[in-house]
Amino acid sequence: MKKEIILTKDGSTSIFLPELNETYHSKFGAIQEANHVFIKNGLSLINDKSVFILEIGFGTGLNAFITFLEAIKTNQTINYVGVEAFPVELDVVKELNYVSELEAIQYQAIFNEMHQSKWEIENEITSNFNLTKREQKFEDISDSEKFNLIYFDAFGFDVQPELWNEEIFQKMYDAMLPNGVLVTYACRTTIKNAMKQAGFKVEKLPGAPGKREMLRAIKD
């Protein structure tokens, strides 16, 4: 599938898929959205020194990289599992500007390693960041009570509604530890109801810049 690099409003890049008319991130700002949804309203709630994260849609690696940067500040150890059915090609990754836009040039090699590391095994990226990339369809996930936090960053409901139903969210619920947190940029009644049917306690929160609302779901 053809991929085009676009510039979002905060100066950070994203990928646009003309065939689906879908972008990997918000056109209002890729980095702004990632920080707001996944760090501010997700990781910041987890006080454990060792955090287990599942990302639904590893994609460009932006969420993994900003999580790595945040863990340096919080002195947390991150055990990160990124699930991606269609990995982004390395030549496309090289066109992304996240490292420079985040003023993290000293960690360019870390960002590169996240993409160049092997799939299906645990990679020690640094002493406090372990990364496992799984080339897997989301509907095939079968983890049980493993994760403190889930970044649900699948393509939008209009493009792939089958990724936002009760069955998928039941898999997310089963994969989480008690009191686990799931955050996503999306917010529509159909999604909220699917989360509730899977057993989650769901709340609406202010969305990232350019978006009115987002959802956070808690496993009781």
Measured by DSSP, the beta-strand proportion falls in: 25-35%
Measured between the Cα atoms of the first and last residue, the distance is 40 Å
Under CATH at level 1, the class stands as: Alpha Beta
Mean of residue pLDDT? 98
Shape: globular
Task: State the helicity in percent bands.
Answer: 25-40%
SSE succession: EEEHEHEHHHEEEHEHEE
The strand order across the widest sheet is 6-7-5-4-8-9-11-10
CATH architecture classification: 3-Layer(aba) Sandwich
What are the low-pLDDT stretches, counting only 5+ consecutive residues below 50?
Answer: none
Q: How many beta-strand segments?
A: 11
**C-alpha Rg (nearest Å):** 16 Å
Largest sheet: 8 strands, mixed
How many helical stretches? 7
Notes on the protein architecture:
The chain is α/β, with parallel strands linked by helices and 220 residues long. The protein has one domain: Rossmann fold (3-Layer(aba) Sandwich). The protein is 27% helix and 29% strand. The chain is built from 7 helices and 11 strands. It starts with a strand and ends with a strand. The relative contact order is 0.16. The mean pLDDT is 98.
